[in-house]
Amino acid sequence: MSHKTTGEKLSFLVPTLYIIFLLLPIYWLVNMSFKENAEITGSFSLWPMNPTLRNYMVIFTDPSWYNGYINSIIYVCLNTVISVAAALPAAYAFSRYRFLGDKHLFFWLLTNRMAPPAVFALPFFQLYSAFGLIDTHIAVAIAHCLFNVPLAVWILEGFMSGVPKEIDETAYIDGYSFPRFFVKIFMPLIASGIGVAAFFCFMFSWVELLLARTLTTTAAKPISAIMTRTVSASGMDWGVLAAAGVLTIIPGALVIYFVRNYIAKGFALGRV
Amino acid sequence: MNFSWMAWTLPTALFFITIFALLIGMAVWEYFSPGGNPRVGILRFETTRGDRLFISLLGSAFIHLAWLGLVGPNLWWALALSVIYAIGVFKTV
Amino acid sequence: MEKTWNNKAWFLVLPVLVLVAFSAVIPLMTVVNYSVQDTFGNNEFFWAGTDWFSEMLASDRFWNALLRNLIFSLVILAIEIPLGILIALNMPKKGLGVPVCLVLMALPLLIPWNVVGTIWQIFGRVDIGLLGHTLEAVGIDYNYVQSPTAAWITIIVMDVWHWTSLVVLLCYAGLVSIPDAYYQAAKIDGASRWSVFRYIQLPKMNRVLLIAVLLRFMDSFMIYTEPFVVTGGGPGNSTTFLSIDLVKMAVGQFDLGPAAAMSIIYFLIILLLSWVFYTVMTSGDAAK
């Protein structure tokens, strides 16, 4: 690649402009979170004139606020673990074997991503009440499996199909049992695929609100639901709203930061 | 555990029993004659008999909806039409 | 890869089956049951037959919401897929740029949906938002609370902002899996930029594009939280999409019967369209 054309030299502009477009609204939210309410509504400035931490103090000193973050993180982690653990053997089955109704089962799994959550909210509430699971973290974790498990199966199946079948056969000849082979040999081979699948499960569980809000009342209420409730209570507290929004971005940003090389490598290896 | 909130009625119960019976029937059929008889029909892509069942059921649902919207609430005719449609699908698709 | 026929594989699929069926089949059955009955609460139900379906199919409200939703889905697919491919093609292939781009681009995907709505609600406001304020300062009449056009543009731009990165990440994954040898061969043949894209890069992205189109279509077709937070379905009904209408009916008015009937029609449409997408793109895959 010694002779670069002008087009290639300018190609960095496309992602750069796109990233600026992505960051502007986020910057505006961060900007607002450091302002007093009077400054937000009264004047217009590109950065806080009197930076204040008041909005963040409101959140960190009030358990009904910060518990929301803890609740969200608990059920998201539970969901990620359950989804990936259940999807691993299923994805192996889909990538290695043909069996009765396999293709239709696969399509059926995917259709569950399409079901509009809006009207399922009420039957969901009653179903989980019948099992006494309302307002528990596990209820939200299981409910989110509805769309995360199919996705995890799909992603993992792609990665597993990229591993040659000879590896399985050699291991069985060497006397490995299936569980031992799966954990000791196979899982390390698709580690990046597991990373990618876990990332997507985390992402979709973290951002979902409708089901999480329906299935919880107080003890397991997610932060995004607390935001909607508190904001409408006493007029518009724009500063606290912005601060709460910024804080919901942080866990996601941390997860991406920690898995950044892993994700790039994972995306590169698998067919996804 | 109380499941009265599911509000079962006889017609909907029959409906789901039929669907499940169809699925079990297809599974048994597939078990004794695996492969699903794949072929390329008038839609110009390969279908197995499971695909044909799916096309029949989905098509029937739309036939019923169209009948309700365009003709009237007497669905027996729509059902008859769906059966003809399903036979057509199994023969030609 | 040649797969062996083995029905014992069912045991490996069983956990997934149970987990998903629990949350999928029972609620779906319940929705079907609700759709043929009328209720006033207290678990008391009265047979209503197919009345709700007839009512839905005859109502302008349903068809308008459906039409709005279809237009919305087509518009965002038409913007996000080409834009995503364009950005993925221009992403750096190695070096420090790769993780920086990936991390920054993935950021909108990990923001809870109502926070996305909140961000744009604030960003677009004429009094306190950067976008609204700037547009007004340049003299463009922009007010998403009153003008349907402005509301639509806001929601489309918000969705592009929110979801294009998913398309970029998937396409990028497809692109980096192409061995360098392909590009070198193309160079020796003197292939143009377009033919490299058409005959090397696009076929390699086939599968990821299938995923991207399917995911974007399904999610945009049941979009709820973001437009609800930004516009609440307004002004008037101009941004009332299917899900918003559905929740208005089921929760706001507690009309379970009509809402259930509507959700079944809605589900059938999504099922049909997704099946068509899936079949077209997988059979194209198999033909090669």
From TrEMBL, chain A:
CDD domains: TM_PBP2 (cd06261). InterPro entries: BP-dep_ABC_trans_perm (IPR050901), MetI-like (IPR000515), MetI-like_sf (IPR035906). This is Sugar ABC transporter permease. The chain crosses the membrane at residues 12-30, 73-94, 106-125, 137-160, 181-207, 238-259. The keyword Metal-binding does not apply. Its main location: membrane. Residues 69-259 form the ABC transmembrane type-1 domain. GO terms for cellular component: plasma membrane. The lineage of its organism: Bacteria, Pseudomonadati, Pseudomonadota, Alphaproteobacteria, Hyphomicrobiales. It is found in: Cell membrane. The keyword Membrane applies.
UniProtKB/TrEMBL annotation, chain B:
It comes from the Bacteria. The chain crosses the membrane at residues 12-32, 76-92. Keywords: Membrane, Transmembrane, Transmembrane helix. This is DUF2160 domain-containing protein.
From TrEMBL, chain C:
It comes from the Bacteria. One of its GO terms (biological process) is transmembrane transport. Residues 66-277 form the ABC transmembrane type-1 domain. It is a multi-pass membrane protein. GO terms for cellular component: plasma membrane. Its main location: membrane. InterPro entries: MetI-like, MetI-like_sf, Sugar_ABC_transporter. Keywords: Membrane, Transmembrane, Transmembrane helix, Transport. The keyword Transmembrane helix applies. The chain crosses the membrane at residues 12-36, 70-89, 96-123, 150-175, 208-225, 259-280. It holds the Pfam family BPD_transp_1. It is found in: Cell membrane. Gene3D superfamilies: MetI-like. SUPFAM superfamilies: MetI-like. Belongs to the binding-protein-dependent transport system permease family. PANTHER family: GLUCOSE IMPORT SYSTEM PERMEASE PROTEIN GLCT, TREHALOSE TRANSPORT SYSTEM PERMEASE PROTEIN SUGA. This is ABC transporter permease. It comes from Metarhizobium album.
